Amino acid sequence: MSVLVYTENWDGKFKKLSFELVSYAKGVAEMLGTKTTVVSIGNVDEAELAKLGNYGASKILKVEGDNLSSLDNQVFTGIISQAAIKENASVVILSHNNTGKAIAPRLAVKLNAALASGLGKLPLSVDPFTVNKKVFSGKAFADVVLSSDVKVLTLAQNSFELIENGGAAVIETFDAEVGQVKTKVKDIQKQTGKILLNDAEIVVSGGRGMKSPDNWGTIEELAELLEAATACSRPVSDEGWRPHNEHTGQTGKIIAPNLYIAAGISGAIQHLAGVSSSKCIVAINTDKDAPIFEAADYGIVGDALKVLPEFINAVKEIKAK
Amino acid sequence: MKIAVCLGNVPDTTTKVKFVDGATLDKAGIQWIINPWDELALTRAIELKEDAGNAVNSVTAITVGGKDSEPTIRKALAIGADDAIRVDAEPADAFAVASELAEVIKGKDFDIIMCGIESSDYNGSAVGGMLAEILDLPSVSAVSKMNISGNEIELDREIDGGKEVVTVQTPFVAVVQKGIAKEPRIAAMRGIMMARKKPLDVVPSTGISANAEFKSFGLPQPKAPCKMVDPANVAELVSLLQNEAKVL
Ligand SMILES: Cc1cc2nc3c(=O)[nH]c(=O)nc-3n(C[C@H](O)[C@H](O)[C@H](O)COP(=O)(O)OP(=O)(O)OC[C@H]3O[C@@H](n4cnc5c(N)ncnc54)[C@H](O)[C@@H]3O)c2cc1C
Ligand SMILES: Nc1ncnc2c1ncn2[C@@H]1O[C@H](COP(=O)(O)O)[C@@H](O)[C@H]1O
Questions:
Q1: Quick check: is B244 in a domain?
Q2: Of residues A3 and B52, which shows the higher confidence score?
Q3: What is the CATH number of domain A2-173?
Q4: Neighboring chain A residues of B41 at a CB cutoff of 8 Å
Q5: How far is residue B231's CA from residue A296's CA, in Å, rounded to a whole number?
C-alpha cells in the first residue's frame, strides 16, 4: 500500500503548491500507516526533485520524455495510473488547480476510484474513508464517504500548511508507457513578472466602487508594495476595466490567500464564493450595510479612493521601520 | 457536426442553503437554474451553429435528473438547443452522472461534447473528465474559447499563469469555464413557444451506482463580527493587520 501524489512542474520547477501537496500526502500516509511516493512528469532536475523529500516524500518516480512538456489529459492519466498500480496506491492526490481538475476525474475512472475534490483538510477518518468538503460554493460543508478500494483526492491551493521534516527521497526513473498525444499546443501565452493570483499570499482587489479603470493605480501600487496579486469583481472584468484572469468569485478564480483586501466591492454571494476561504478579509466600502462587512474581519466605512493612498502611506511607514 | 451540451440543474446561486436533519437539502423555496457554466457552454454551442461558416447541424442538451429538472431542460430548448434528452435518474454522485451520460451519448456520433468546469451545488469538477474517460475520448479542460476550423477545433485553455492555444481532433470532450461565451443567452418569447414543439426524450436510468456518498451536511461556523476602523485612522488598520492578524 502507499499514497501517490502527482506534482506538476512549471518549466522544471516546483512551487509552494507542490510542497503543500506532498505535506498533505504525507499526512494521509501517516493516517494509513504507509509511505508517500511522488510521480513527476516532464523534465525536472534531481536537485529540484530532492526538495520534495523534505516535505515527506519517501520515493520519487520521474517520468521524462520529449512530448511531456505540455498537458495531454489522456497521456498524463495513463502515466499516473501506471504509477498508482506499480506502487499499489490506495490514495492518489493531485492539486485542485486546472491541471488536477483535468486529470483527477479521468484517473478516478481508470482506477475504479471514488473522487473527492477541492479538499482543504486531512480526511476525518480512513476507515470508513471520510472527507469533509465544501459544497454550494462554500455555503455549506459535507462529510463524504468514499467506498471504493482506491480513492482520488484533490487539494485546494493554499489550504494546507507546509510541513518540513528534513527527510530525503529515493529518486527512480519510471519507464511508463506514454500513449498517443492528441492535444497539440499551438501557442503559449504566459503572464510574466506578476505574482499569480492563485499563488499569492496577499491579494488586493477592486470592485465597481473604484469608479473607473483610471483609479487602479493605487490598487497596483499597494499590491506591489505588499508583493501581492491584483484581483477584481466580475463586473469590473466584464466592463473590460481589468483582464478576465483577475476576476474572483464563483464563476472566476477561487482563491484562499492569507489576506484579501476588497476595495469598493459589495460582497455579493457569488463574489464571496471565490474569496471566503481567505484567512483574513479587509473591506473598504462607503456603504456600512454592504454585505462584504459580514464576511470581513476588518472594515473601513469610507471612500476607497481616499483610503487606499493612506493605506499605502501607512505600509510604507512600517516598511521604513 | 453535432454538439452535445451536458447541463446540470442547480439551486440559484443566491440561495441560502438549509438541510433537513443535516442529511438532505431542504428544497423548499429553491429556484432552480441551469448550472452557470453549462448555460455559457450552451450559449457558445448555439453561436457556433448560427455561424454558417461552421458545419454545425445540431445542438443537443442532455441532463441527468428527475422529473423536477424538466423545466431546466425545457429552458435549454427555449434558449436554442434543437433537441434534448433527460436521463430519468437522481444525480447521486459525479461517477453515476458521468456513467448515465456516457450511456446515452455512446453511439450518437457527437463530435463535440461540452461540460462545465463544475456544478455550483456539489462542486465536483468531475463529470466532464469522467465522461471522457468512460468514452475513451480526449478531453480539454479549463476551456475559455472554442472555434471550429474544418475538422479541427481550436481552443484556449487556461493554465497556471497564462493560457495555451490547443487543437484537438473530434470527437472530444470540452470542459468549459468563464470566457467561453460572453453572456448567457436568455430565452425569448418565440423560443419559449418553439421549445414546446421540440423533441425531449426521456430515457430510463441504467442504475449505475455511486461510489461517493454525501453522508451529512453542515453550515460554516458563524464569523466573528467585523472589526471596524475609523476612516481617519488607516494606520491603525495596517497596525492591526501586522500585529493582531499577523498577515503583513
Ligand atoms: C450566476 C452568477 C455568477 C456570478 N459570479 C460572480 C463572480 O464570480 N464574481 C463576482 O464578483 N461577481 C459575480 N456575479 C455578480 C455578483 O452578483 C455582483 O453583481 C458583483 O459581484 C458586484 O460587483 P461589485 O461589488 O464590484 O459591484 P457593485 O455591486 O456595484 O458594488 C459596488 C460597491 O462599491 C461601493 N462603493 C461605491 N463607491 C465607493 C467608493 N468610492 N469607495 C468604496 N466603496 C464604494 C458600493 O457601496 C458597493 O457596495 C455573479 C452573478 C451571477 C448571477
Ligand atoms: N445532473 C447532470 N446532468 C447533466 N450534466 C451534468 C449533471 N451534473 C453535472 N453535469 C455536467 O458536469 C459538469 C461538472 O459537474 P460536477 O462534476 O458535478 O462539478 C457540469 O458543468 C455539467 O456540464
A1: no
A2: A3
A3: 3.40.50.620
A4: none
A5: 16
| A40 min Cα distance to partner chain B (Å) | 17
Look at residue B237 and tell me if it is in a domain. Answer: no
> Where do you find CATH 3.40.50.620 in chain A?
2-173
Q: What is the pLDDT of residues B85-95, one digit of tens each?
A: 999 999 999 99
The nearest CA of chain A is from the CA of B192 a distance in Å of: 26
Inter-residue contact A257 to A278 (CB < 8 Å): yes
> Averaged over B137-165, what is the pLDDT?
94
CATH code of B59's domain: 3.40.50.620
In this structure, what C-alpha cell is assigned to residue B13?
A: 446561486
User: What ipTM was reported for this prediction?
Assistant: 0.96
* Of the partner residues B123, B134, B238, the one whose CB lies closest to the CB of residue A109: B134
Burial of residue A192, with CB atoms counted within 10 A of its CB: 0-12 exposed, 13-18 middle, 19 or more buried: exposed
Query: Which residue, among A15, A92, A109, A255, would best test binding to B if mutated, counting the most B CBs under 10 Å from its CB?
Result: A109
Question: pLDDT tens, A179-194?
Answer: 999 999 999 998 887 8
Which cell is A1 given?
A: 500500500
End-to-end CA, chain B: 55
For chains A and B, count residue pairs whose Cβ atoms are closer than 8 Å.
268
Mean pLDDT of all residues in chain B? 96
C-alpha cell at A309: 493612498
B198: pLDDT strictly greater than 90: yes
Q: Tally Cβ neighbours within 10 Å of residue B222.
A: 7
Q: In the predicted model, is pLDDT for residue B164 greater than 90? A: yes
* pTM exceeds 0.80: yes
As its CATH architecture, domain A197-320 has 3-Layer(aba) Sandwich (3.40)
Pocket test for ligand 1, best of A232, A234, A292, A311 (most atoms within 8 A of CB): A234
- How many structural domains does chain B have? 1
Which residue range forms the structural domain that includes residue B71? 2-219
- Of A250, A254, A255, A281, the residue with max ligand 1 atoms within 8 A of its CB, to mutate for a pocket test, comes to A250
Could you tell me if residue B23 is inside a domain?
Answer: yes
